[in-house]
Each structure stands twice: as C-alpha cells, then as structure tokens.
Design goal:
The complex is a heterodimer. By secondary structure, chain A is of the alpha/beta class. Helix content of chain A is 35%, strand content 20%. In chain A, the strands form two sheets. In chain A, strands 1, 2, 4, 5, 6, 7, 8 and 9 form an eight-stranded mixed β-sheet that branches. Chain A has an eight-stranded mixed β-sheet with strand order 10-11-12-3-13-14-16-15, with helices on both faces. The radius of gyration of chain A is 23 Å and the shape is globular. The chains are: A alpha/beta, B alpha+beta. At the A-B interface, helix 7, helix 8, helix 9, helix 10 and helix 11 of A face helix 6, helix 7, helix 8, helix 10 and helix 11 of B.
Chain lengths: 456, 438
C-alpha cells in the first residue's frame, strides 16, 4: 500500500446550541501513512480531541460532523469486506477520480474503489477507501472495534473498575477474535506481556485500581490492541504520567508500532513529546490546522507565527532568559465561519489584511540554505499543489499525491508564500478561499437545519 | 566517605544525613532538618508505615526560589505540607526565621501559616469553592496590607487580566468557570504556563517573597528556581544550584529524570536513559538505596564482575517479579492457598524462570543461586527467595543507604558511586537499566 491509510479532509465538526454554533473542528485536513505517526499539537480548545473523536464517530448530540467532510480509511482488506457487504453503495473511480464502470451509484456511495476486480462475493479491492462520514453506523462501529482504536489520557477512566483487567481483555478478545476460555486467557496474558507488564497471569486477576498509573495506561493500550487495529489514536496518553513513566510509554508505543505495523495519531500539547514520537505534525489552532510539516521541518523551520510562538514559550528551551516569551490572550472559541485569521488577535506579525482574509494552506518555502532558486522555484512548487485545497471534485487525486511521509510543508498564513509580494499573496489566499469554501458556505447556512439530517 | 562531615551541632533527633550539605544560603529563612513524616499502616497487624518524608534536610534563603521535584508518590507534597505543619511530623525540625515551628502552639501556628502559603497544582482543589475568584486572588494582598482596598481591587483585575481572565470574572465563583478557565489558574498550556511563571516572578519582586516550588515539571523548575532538590521515595537524592544541577547532574536518579524529559528537538534522545519498572511501593521501600531497584548505574558486586549486561538484565527482571509477588501476596489466606497449591493466581515460578532466565546462560554459581531462589518461591517462601537473591546480587547499593556527598559548590548527591572506590555515575553506565520490559 503506497497511499495514506487514514485521510481526513475538510473535517468540520460543530456543536449546535441555542445561542451559537461552536465550530470545534473547522475544515481540518491531514493524512496518516501506514506505519507512521502523525502528531496533532495545539493548546486546549484547539479541537484536537474532537478531531480524534470524530474519526471514531464518537460525537454525541448536539455535535454533528458536516456532510461535506471526509474521513477515508484505506486498508484494502477492510474496504473489500465492506464493498461486498454494501455492493450498491460502491463507486468505482479511475486514476483521474472520474466515475468508472456503469451503474455506479455515486449519490449515496461511501465505498470508493480505485483498483479492484470482480463483483459480488468475489469482489477484490487493491486500492480504495471507506468514507466514515457517509458510512452507516454499523460500519463505523466495526471500524471502531477492529480497525482504529483509541487510548485516552485518563487510563483509569477507560478501564471498568468492577471487572478484573483479565475479564476486560477476555471480553474484547471474545468479541473481536472469537476467543473463549483458556485461549482467551492465554491471548490476554500475551497482550499484557507485549505492553511490558511483568508476571502477566497474576496481573490478569487484578483490578484496575491495583495497577500503578503507568501500568494502567499499559493496560488500556493492551485493551486497544485486543482488536488488532491498524490505527491507534492516542489522546494525550502520557500527559497524566510522570516523566520517567512517560518515557516508558513512548518507547512502548514506538516498539508496538514497529511490531504491529501501526499507524498512530498522537494528540498532545507537549512539543517535546511531538519531537520524540511524530514523523509528521499538524499544528491546530481554534479548530483549524495552521501548519503541516515533517517533524524535522517543523522544528527547524517553523513558519506559522503561532508555531513559532509555541516553540518559543517552552520553558527550558530558552535557557537563561529571565522572562518567558508568551503568547498573549487565549484560544478563541470559533463560532463563525472563518473570514479572517483566527490567530490574528494574538499574532505579533498581524497586519490589516489578516482581519479580512482567511488564510489558506500554501507551500512554505524551502529552508534558508536551499533558497537560491528564488521566486521561480517557489512558483514551480506551488503549481503542483495549487489544487490541493480546491473544490471537492479533484480531492482524492491530490490527496493521493500528498501521502507517504507527508513531507510536504504547508502553512495557512498570509505571510506565505513569502517569495511573493503582498498583493500576490493576498490574491492567492483569496482565490483558494473562494474555491475552497464555496460549497461549504452554502452548507454552513444549513448546518443546523435539514442538511445534516440523516448523517451521524 | 562524605566530603562534608555530618553537622554535629544539630538536635539529637535529626537524622544523620549530612544536613550541612544543603546550606546554600547566607541568610536562611526556612531551615528544615532531618524532617520525617510517616503515615501509619491501615492494617492492624504486620503493616509497615509509609515513610513519605524520610530525613529531609534543606535550607531556603530569604528571597530565594527553591524547587522540589520528583515523581508522584515521592513525598514532595507531604514535605510541603509538613513544613506548613499541615501534617504531623515524626521527627526533625523546621525553623522559620529562627523560630522552631514544629513546637508552635495553635495561635503561633496560624501566624506561621499566614506567612507561608501553599498554592496547589490541581486547579479544582486549590480553589476555595466558596470565595469568588477576586477574593481568592486578593487574599495575599490583604494579608500583606497592600495599598488601599480600591488599589487592591485594581491590582487583582490587572493580575486576572494577565492570566487571560476578564475583569467581570472577579465576582464569579470558581464553579462558574469552565475547566479550561480554571486551568488558567492552575496552568496547563505552555503559553498560559509561561504567563503564570512570569506572574510569580513579578509577585516575588514586588513583595520580596520566598518560594518553595513543588513540581513535577522539570522545565518549569529550571526556569524559575535558584536551587532545586530532587526527591525519590521520601529521600532528597540531590540538591544543587539549578543551572549546575541541570547541566551536570551527579545523582543517577537526577540523570534519569532529566534524560526522560522529551526535548523539543527531533534529533535529541539517542542516549536517553529509560528506567526499568515503576517506583517501588513506599510501604516496602528497597533496602539500602531507595533507587536501587531501578538505578541504571547500580554498582554490581565485585564477585559477579564478569556477568554481561544481558545476564544482569535477566537477573534483575527475575528479581523484579519476585519482589512484586512478595508485595502482592497480602493475606494469610492467600498465602495458605498458594502453599496448598489451590491458588491459580500466579503463573508457576518455573514458567517465569524459564521465560526470563533460560534464554541466557549463567556461570554455575549464579545458576545455582537462581535455582535455589526458584525452589524457595515454589515452596511458597517468597520472602526467603527475595533475601537470597539480594544477598547474592544486591551489592552495596542494596546493603547500605548512601550518604550525601558534596559534589561541587552547593551541590550534594546521595549515591554510593561518589565514594572514591567506585566510578562516578557518568563514567559507568550500566545498560541493564535499559529495559527488560521495553
């Protein structure tokens, strides 16, 4: 598999209350390659956790995932299984993303097959995806059970206090792998051992409260692994732990990733943890991703003023300085469609236009050393990416291009692409904004009305 | 041998732990000597007390910011509470500006607590639910008779503003704040955290405050403290000026703790020390040095000098399992069941032994000891097995509690490796510290 395993595109999760619509996640896009770790970083209130919960379909009323959002899961075996179960909701596309094969039901399709063969029960899929936003609840449920698992910050809270750890593991193993009795016990002990819990058979008979904090988090990881997932969503799994225990858990996750070919989405506010565990990073602010880059690029060449501020305000990094640089103010609660830069009120580099134009993702320029090519080089790069945040039609194709290491570095800020003069930059952002939000703007009007009816 | 002899002039009930080592200030405001706070066992028979604070000596200078760091359960909070006499202490002395507060009567105690305030880490529990936020923040100003009431109110609005709360929040009660807003008083996000730290610094400059900062976030401590003490399982393992302690930590625990902090640099971390296991049960602390069960720099007994790191790792993992069993096997009934073989709670020890020890081959005498211990466990005599293994493999680190050794100006560390006959922790890295577990 060469493409991404999990792809989130233009994800918008809103919470509708009597007074306002909170746009907790507002047009977030990222992708996770197989066996890679994506770090999702931001302050509290930036929408990281809601993003993760949206992927798993764990958004409760009054929360809604906007129907224009897409959460595509690509594991071929899973896509194949679902395609066989829902033959009339499959659409075939060729390499260009155009509808293929006669009789495709594009209207309510949620399974997309890009490469495959056969029909009915002999259908095979080499490349394709299941869109979890459009999929019926029981498909989402089977993803939650067997494909994507989640580890939460509050380990004790995710364990049932009245059952032994062994009972909880055996129950899951029974549901997901059909194991019973001695076989289930053996498998449960193996799982505990694989997460570094010594003397596992003794531990199986203990209750969660008898475990230390670090051991509890190991146990919840074991529970998450019981269904043999391909993707692990980790929501601040080490934030409540001491640093030496945190180091153990981070090492454990890295080892499990190697052993089990896991893709990991790791949510944290700790830039140190991100630096250690992530391959690529998406920086979130007020419901939006403001910068996306490989971990090396992000720390060496942070582009967005917010990312730069985050990195500067880590105590210890700045050494002898008496006063820590701070980011004034706090994360606003996004309750209007973005017509400006949400960071502008706190941004030291903000200028007038920041309050009038919503910045779109543009390529960040090359690192200082290799910048000899100047404006031409930058333009060239930009040309290949210009469609990326465009309208819906060509999305899957472009998304396929930006897979792999997600090494591409993009930033949503009017300062970029900084090789262009201001007028040019503003035009670029305006253009992309118009293309990108045209369908959404229509949807936003109806967001709290009928348009979302029938969606999960 | 310690470079600094224990201070002979201290009170007789002060533990001998090189109290003078911590004398880091010409004008000490708070002097803590051999402080011990033990919690009694909840069990009626056979329980051991938890030595939450076990012989801690420290001096905090006037206007100084002294940091105590350590992981949860190390006793740092109990130490803070003991100094304020919110806990009954079992030994040692705390004097404040020359007055022994351990002997204060009720009224004087109240005055002392007014002088020394505790700010808690947990945002919900540190906020008095029955005071408005404005009152809470104004309290220290009232105590210090700062300005006129009007000026105080203005000052409070100013302070709230600085931590990102609006003036209208002044009259709200804490429960009317969202979790996030409450955290702004307790500080979680880095940008907010930075503001709080700056605020603390401002207050210190303005009111000439002395801080003892109890934290588990080492980067915060590094930023704000003049001197730092590192605690592990009730003991102060190392004390020193912040810069020195962070740049050249002497104690193995400090080294491990610092190395575990994830650096915001993707290229860092190649030589990170990952500690094995979890902090020991404080009810049953390790013999000798409290850090000996996890120490990556543990001194290996000379007679086993030829064992490889791999062999040591296997032995330590095996010992870890037996130690945990010894602690877990709580009731007499369970002990009985185990002996009669009707308890299936434990994996048979042979299985554990073969899993952990068989992949590695040992010299005959070592093999013999391990078999002996395995047999003892099989007979249900776990404590004897544990003792047998300690005798054979524990070495000096498990036999004697290390003393404080002076390292450099104002820096002291509690570790056998500072003795002249051993190599310093930096020189010898025992890689069995990198995990059998991970």
């Amino acid at each position: 598999m060469t493409g991404p395993l999990l792809e989130v595109e233009n994800l918008r999760t809103t919470f509708v209350t009597d007074q306002e619509t909170i746009r907790a996640v507002d047009g977030v896009s990222f992708s996770v390659a197989p066996r890679h770790t994506l770090g999702l970083v931001g302050e509290s209130g930036s929408g990281k956790s809601v993003t993760a919960r949206s992927i798993l379909g764990l958004i409760d009323d009054p929360g809604r995932i906007h129907p224009d959002s897409a959460i595509r899961y690509h594991r071929p075996a899973f896509v194949q299984r679902i395609a066989r179960e829902y033959p009339d909701r499959v659409r075939w596309v060729d390499g260009d993303g155009d509808a293929d094969r006669d009789g495709s039901h594009d209207g309510n399709a949620f399974v997309t097959i890009e490469a495959g063969d056969g029909e009915g029960t002999s259908l095979t899929v080499d490349r394709g995806s299941v869109d979890l936003v459009a999929a019926p609840e029981n498909v989402v449920q089977s993803v939650r059970g067997g494909e994507i698992a989640m580890v939460f910050q509050d380990a004790l809270g995710s364990l049932n206090p009245v059952y032994t750890v062994g009972n909880q593991l055996r129950e899951l193993l029974g549901i997901h792998r059909g194991l019973r009795g001695g076989a289930a016990t053996e498998a449960a002990a193996e799982l505990l051992e694989s997460v570094g819990i010594p003397d596992p058979k003794r531990r199986l008979k203990e209750y969660p409260h008898q475990f230390s904090g670090g051991m509890q988090q190991r146990a919840t990881i074991a529970l998450a692994l019981a269904c043999d997932p391909s993707v692990l969503l980790c929501d601040e799994p080490t934030t409540a732990l001491d640093v030496t225990i945190q180091a153990q858990i981070l090492e454990l996750l890295a080892r499990l990733q190697r052993e089990r070919d896991l893709s990991i989405v790791f949510i944290t506010h700790d830039m140190g943890v991100i630096a250690q565990i992530a391959d690529s990073v998406a920086v979130m602010y007020a419901g939006e991703v403001v910068e996306r880059a490989s971990v090396g690029r992000l720390f060496d060449h942070p582009k967005h003023p917010y990312t730069q501020g985050l990195l500067r305000s880590i105590p210890g990094l700045t050494g002898e300085v008496d006063r820590l640089p701070t980011i004034e103010g706090s994360v606003p609660t996004p309750n209007e469609p973005p017509t400006d830069c949400r960071y502008a009120p706190r941004c030291p580099k903000a200028f007038d236009e920041c309050k009038m134009i919503h910045p779109e993702h543009v390529p960040a320029e090359e690192p200082a050393g290799s910048e000899g090519t100047g404006a031409d080089g930058t333009d060239g790069t930009e040309g290949t990416h210009v469609d990326e945040t465009d309208g819906t039609a060509e999305r899957s194709e472009d998304a396929a291009e930006r897979t792999g290491d997600a090494a591409e570095h993009t930033v949503a800020c009017l300062l970029y692409p900084d090789a262009e003069p201001l007028e040019e930059r503003l035009r670029t952002h305006r253009q992309r904004g118009d293309l990108g939000t045209a369908p959404d703007a229509a949807g936003a009007d109806a967001a709290d009305g009928d348009a979302t009816e029938g969606e999960r | 041998m310690s470079d600094r002899a224990p201070d002979g002039g201290t009170a007789p009930d002060v533990a001998d732990d090189g109290a003078t080592g911590q004398r880091g200030h010409d004008d000490p405001l708070v002097v803590v000597e051999g402080l011990r706070t033990h919690y009694e066992s909840e069990r009626l028979v056979g329980g051991k007390p938890v030595k939450a604070v076990d012989g801690v000596s420290v001096e905090i200078g006037r206007g100084e910011t002294f940091g105590i760091v350590g992981e949860s359960g190390c006793g740092k909070t109990t130490l803070g509470r003991s100094i304020l006499r919110l806990e009954d202490v079992d030994g040692g002395r705390v004097s404040f500006d020359g007055t022994d507060v351990t002997t204060l009567g009720r009224r004087d105690l109240k005055a002392w607590r007014r002088n020394a305030q505790m700010v808690y880490q947990n945002p919900t529990s540190s906020i008095n639910e029955r005071m408005t936020v404005g009152e809470i923040v104004r309290e220290p100003l009232d105590i210090h008779d700062w300005g006129t009431p009007g000026e105080r109110r203005e000052r409070v609005s100013d302070l709230l503003d600085r931590v990102g709360l609006r003036p209208e929040h002044y009259y709200r009660y804490p429960h009317q704040f969202s979790g996030g807003q409450r955290q702004r008083v307790g500080a979680l996000d880095v940008s907010v955290q930075a503001k709080i730290l700056n605020l603390l610094a401002d207050l210190q400059a303005e009111f000439d405050l002395t801080y003892m900062l109890i934290a588990h976030d080492l980067s915060v401590v590094r930023h704000i403290c003049d001197r730092v003490g590192v605690m592990y399982l009730g003991k102060l393992m190392e004390v020193g000026p912040t810069k020195q302690l962070f740049e050249s930590p002497a104690n193995p625990y400090t080294r491990s703790l610092l190395s575990a902090i994830p650096q915001p640099d993707p290229d860092a971390g190649a030589d990170r020390i990952t500690l094995r296991g979890t902090p020991p049960n404080p009810r049953d602390p390790p013999s000798g040095c409290v850090f000996s069960t996890r120490c990556p720099f543990k001194i290996r007994p000379a007679e086993h000098g030829d064992l490889t790191d791999e062999q040591w790792a296997a032995i330590e993992a095996f010992r870890g399992v037996i130690r945990e069993r010894d602690q877990a096997r709580v009731t007499v009934l369970e002990r009985l069941k185990a002996r009669l073989g009707i308890d299936d709670r434990f994996t048979p020890i042979d299985e554990i032994a073969s899993e952990l020890l068989d992949p590695v081959s040992f010299p005959d005498p070592v093999e013999g000891t391990l078999e002996e211990a395995t047999a003892l466990v099989a007979d249900g005599n776990v404590p004897a097995a544990r003792d047998r293994l300690r005798e054979a493999f524990g070495g000096v680190c498990e036999a004697e509690a290390p003393e404080h050794h002076g390292i450099a100006d104002g820096q002291v560390s509690r570790c056998h490796r500072h003795r002249p006959e051993y190599e310093e922790p930096g020189a010898s890295r025992d890689d069995s510290g990198t995990p059998p577990l991970e």
